[in-house]
Write a structure and sequence with these properties.
This protein folds into 2 domains: 6-62, no CATH class; 79-316, Aldolase class I (TIM Barrel). The chain is 29% helix and 19% strand. It has helices at residues 6-11, 17-29, 36-39, 50-55, 120-132, 152-163, 177-180, 187-194, 213-224, 243-255, 279-290, and strands at 79-81, 84-88, 91-94, 139-142, 170-174, 199-203, 228-234, 259-264, 300-305, 310-313, 319-321, 327-331, 337-341, 356-360. A 10-stranded mixed beta sheet has the order 1-2-3-4-5-6-7-8-9-10. The chain has a 4-stranded antiparallel beta sheet with strand order 11-12-13-14, with no helix packed on it. Helix 9 (213-224) links the parallel strand 6 and strand 7. It starts with 5 loop residues before the first helix and ends with a strand. Bound molecules: pyridoxal-5'-phosphate. Pyridoxal-5'-phosphate binds next to strand 2 and strand 3.
Length: 361
């Protein structure tokens, strides 16, 4: 069931008719879908509820701010075959679907997800052939869209096809299904995944209120099946950008034996300005957690250089603060240098430089 239209939000008491009217152009541009399960986590009396902000559309998404991009991390720049991205030498991303159980409002692929659907049968053999022809590729990462929306049989076929290649040493799945539709993580899915170890599942819990008993059952089943489960979160204003929330999230994940892997700085996706935290605030938040959390609980805070430069740890020499507030020099993981003007500090740019990353000579 769930909701897919603003009218259904009114029926659920999650929007007034006037609000629903204003949201119509938002969901025309960026689709909405939320299951009953995830809707049930929303506090309907709190207009600023952190669960609501991730799931339900906001008219702020219609605002396109300076420097925002339709393809913020440069997937298309590094597309190597249909639905396959090869940016780092030893690993590729493959998108078996662009469907998700829920469309996160801050998603960095929110434009791609609203373009043509992926037909797995049209792209799988080409992707497998590409990996076979590139022996330097050691790891295949299924992303999307949400790969765990595939049926068990199709997932088995995709993992089997890549896993059978002699150069592929490990498989990885990036999925928000354990968070947004945990009932999908059933015995059949877990058994399917367990056949393809070594397999790493990277989930995407952003807030401790997503750590429910149903989600726990799914995650524990994955762990019990010998799958390594990691988590990536995105630092989001109005959702989790405070030390108490992040500490509760990371501590809760460790109780399930899930290792916090990455905390992502928000990408420069169109229509996401209302979620933005400055790099400066993100860094001081993460540093404040170091003193109180086990190293096991501490993720790497990463920035994906806008335009396709690659992911870099923020608290490192890859990200150098310049004397001017909110201006940085970035060093790419595979070379290259960029000037970065923080859109959260300089929404209109700085001394003629637009917000975002500009490649330096
Ligand atoms: C994020 C990403 C990866 C995975 O990077 P890790 O640092 O290994 O988690 C791989 N390929 C692309 C294109 C990516 O964007």
């Amino acid at each position: 069931m769930g909701v897919r239209t603003p009218g259904e939000l009114v029926e659920r008491g999650l929007a007034t008719p006037a609000q629903a009217g204003a949201l119509a152009p938002v969901v025309d541009r960026y689709r909405m879908q939320v299951d009953d399960y995830y809707l049930g986590l929303i506090d309907p009396d709190d207009p600023d509820d952190p669960i609501r902000r991730q799931a339900l559309p906001d008219v702020a998404e219609l605002v396109e701010s300076a420097g925002e991009l339709r393809d913020p991390i440069g997937d298309s720049v590094h597309a190597a075959a249909p639905q396959l991205v090869h940016r780092y030498r030893d690993r590729v991303l493959f998108f078996p679907t662009f469907l998700c159980p829920m469309y996160c409002r801050y998603c960095f692929r929110k434009v791609a997800l609203n373009e043509a659907p992926v037909r797995l049968d049209d792209v799988l053999s080409g992707a497998v052939a590409y990996v076979a022809a590139h022996p330097e590729v050691r790891e295949v990462i299924l992303s999307g869209g949400d790969p765990l929306l595939l049926s068990d049989d199709r997932l088995d076929r995709v993992l089997g096809a890549f896993g059978a290649l002699p150069n592929v040493e490990r498989l990885r799945i990036h999925s928000r299904v354990p968070v947004t539709r945990p009932s999908r993580v059933d015995a059949g899915l877990v058994a399917t995944l367990a056949r393809h170890r070594p397999l790493f599942v990277v989930t995407h819990f952003n807030h401790p209120r997503e750590l429910t008993p149903v989600a726990e059952a799914g995650v524990r089943a994955l762990v019990d099946a010998g799958i390594t489960v990691l988590n990536q979160a995105v630092l989001l204003r109005g959702v989790n950008a405070d030390a108490e929330t992040l500490a509760a999230l990371f501590g809760g994940l460790l109780r399930w034996q899930v290792r916090p892997y990455y905390l992502h700085h928000l990408d420069m996706t169109v229509g996401t300005q209302h979620f933005r935290v400055s790099l400066r605030d993100g860094l001081s938040l993460v540093r404040s957690l170091r003193g109180r959390l086990s190293g096991l609980a501490w993720p790497t805070y990463v920035l994906d250089i806008p335009g396709g430069g690659g992911k870099v740890p923020v608290d490192s020499d890859f990200v150098r603060a310049e004397p001017q507030r909110g201006v940085y020099t970035l060093v790419g993981p595979q070379g290259g240098r960029w000037r970065y003007v923080d859109p959260a500090e300089h929404p209109a740019g700085f001394e003629g430089h637009p917000p975002g990353a500009e490649r330096l000579p």
